[in-house]
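Tokens as discussed.
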């Protein structure tokens, strides 16, 4: 049998996020964002969140890899690889430095004009996330981030501003990056980066998370509606972290626990795609006594603002097992309820590498959502060695991407799953979101910068750069 081929307009590219590459954190009128008050951590601990910018702390996102200044040369390298698209985000605090202004910051808007123009010079389609872990910090201190209903208005004003400004430069949008990370509500990182929230002693973190998440799905739905009035050709997607949760055994209790975990992780996309809450969850709110501010107008917005496609990241799979004392809800707490899957290897950071899980996920989402799917992140964080002649022999990264693209192609050609594109994480080395490390490298382009901020910022092509160039040139046939 001959292998079926991918569609000719398949969107091969690469992904980054503004706060992880741009730097220039106080240039061009930019305000502080949540990413600007997070320190660097080691491989196995979490970044600290400081009260504003403190004098004796190091904040790796402040300079990142200086994409703000070096983007023309970087986009040229993306073009050399053959990118059809480039996923990045708009740093909200470049456009609304405090978040609650009425008028946008022109210098911030002009930067993204220049960046998107540079992409179009090489026929590279920008794929743009509105909110990728970079809410204006002032919204955190003044309003408690998405604790406040007012933040819906600030977000949709920002969305409307950039939809209008880039009406003819951007077609593919994503609203909130990995909106479902915060289902892990006991982890400070996820609630802070998703929602600008720091849980206070005595608070019910789960209830706080569900309220903020509700405001965010409403904000997303309003943004979708605004987008379609500004340009009916806009394609606006939701974005979830797709880590499937497998049952640890075939015990029915474990299988049900895994089902509940999947429901909990993916109610976000259920709402964003279907326009309504799943029944288990509205019942769950009642059982738990969560008295949430959910209005009839909100529910109407959710119905009217369903997304055009579903974007997702895929890094790893999870597994779970029921305990002996599950409540009737089999309540899922991601901090406590995951177990190690003995059948898959782990990365140096403990991420369970599972290429087949990508095919599983594509089928699962296709059956559930019946929408085009876009793999907007997939990759592995690893320590790279730069040789004396400026090469990086990152066969482990090639192997990871190879095995995942192979599973994506099987899902497309054998299972008929409609996949719009594939943008590995990351196009170029970035500051890791969860650890703040530069040494947890993801890029196919190496940046000479170290965890402590030293380094020349010079760029070098890794072996994976040339490999991915061939993959794109052959439209995925030459893996
Ligand atoms: P880092 C958790 C699980 C899956 C993806 O992650 C995640 C996270 C948050 O850490 O984040 C996404 O840099 C995110 C990117 C991030 C990338 O995955 O923590 O959208 O911003 O850099 C990799 O190793």
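Sequence:
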């Amino acid at each position: 049998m001959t292998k079926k081929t991918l569609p000719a307009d398949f969107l091969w590219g690469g992904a980054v996020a503004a706060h992880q590459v741009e730097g220039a954190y106080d240039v061009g009128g930019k305000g502080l964002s949540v990413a600007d008050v997070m320190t660097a951590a080691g491989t196995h601990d979490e970044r600290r969140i400081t009260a504003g910018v403190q004098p004796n702390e190091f904040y790796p996102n402040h300079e990142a890899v200086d994409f703000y200044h070096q983007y023309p040369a970087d986009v040229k390298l993306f073009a050399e690889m053959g990118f059809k698209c480039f996923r990045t985000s708009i740093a909200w605090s470049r456009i609304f430095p405090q978040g609650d202004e009425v008028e946008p910051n022109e210098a911030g808007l002009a930067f993204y004009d220049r960046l998107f123009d540079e992409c179009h010079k090489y026929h590279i389609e920008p794929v743009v996330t509105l909110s990728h872990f970079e809410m204006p910090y002032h919204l955190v201190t003044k309003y408690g981030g998405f604790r406040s209903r007012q933040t819906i208005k600030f977000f949709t004003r920002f969305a409307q501003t950039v939809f209008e400004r880039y009406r003819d430069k951007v077609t593919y949008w994503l609203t909130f990056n990995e909106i479902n990370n915060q289902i892990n509500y006991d982890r400070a990182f996820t609630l802070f980066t998703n929602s600008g929230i720091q849980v206070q002693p005595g608070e019910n973190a789960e209830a706080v998370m569900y309220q903020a998440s509700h405001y965010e799905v409403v904000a997303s739905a309003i943004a979708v509606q605004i987008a379609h009035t500004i340009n009916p050709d806009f394609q606006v997607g939701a974005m979830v972290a797709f880590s499937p949760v497998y049952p640890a055994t075939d015990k029915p209790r474990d299988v049900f626990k895994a089902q509940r975990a999947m429901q909990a992780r993916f109610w976000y996309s259920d709402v964003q795609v279907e326009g309504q809450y799943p029944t288990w969850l509205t019942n769950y709110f009642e059982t738990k006594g969560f008295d949430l501010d959910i209005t009839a107008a909100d529910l109407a917005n959710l119905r009217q603002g369903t997304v055009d496609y579903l974007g997702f990241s895929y890094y790893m799979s999870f597994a779970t097992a029921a305990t002996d004392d599950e409540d009737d809800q089999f309540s899922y707490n991601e901090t406590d309820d995951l177990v190690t899957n003995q059948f898959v290897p782990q990365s140096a950071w403990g991420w369970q590498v599972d290429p087949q899980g990508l095919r599983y996920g594509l089928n699962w989402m296709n059956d559930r959502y019946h929408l085009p799917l876009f793999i907007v992140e997939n990759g592995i964080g690893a320590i790279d060695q730069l040789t004396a002649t400026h090469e990086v022999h990152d066969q482990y990264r090639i192997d990871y991407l190879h095995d995942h693209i192979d599973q994506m192609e099987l899902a497309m050609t054998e299972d008929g799953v409609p996949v719009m594109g594939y943008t590995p994480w990351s196009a170029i080395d970035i500051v890791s979101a969860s650890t703040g490390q530069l040494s947890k490298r993801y890029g196919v382009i190496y940046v000479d910068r170290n965890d402590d901020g030293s380094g020349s910022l010079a760029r070098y092509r890794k072996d994976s750069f040339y490999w991915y160039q061939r993959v794109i040139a052959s439209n995925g046939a030459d893996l």
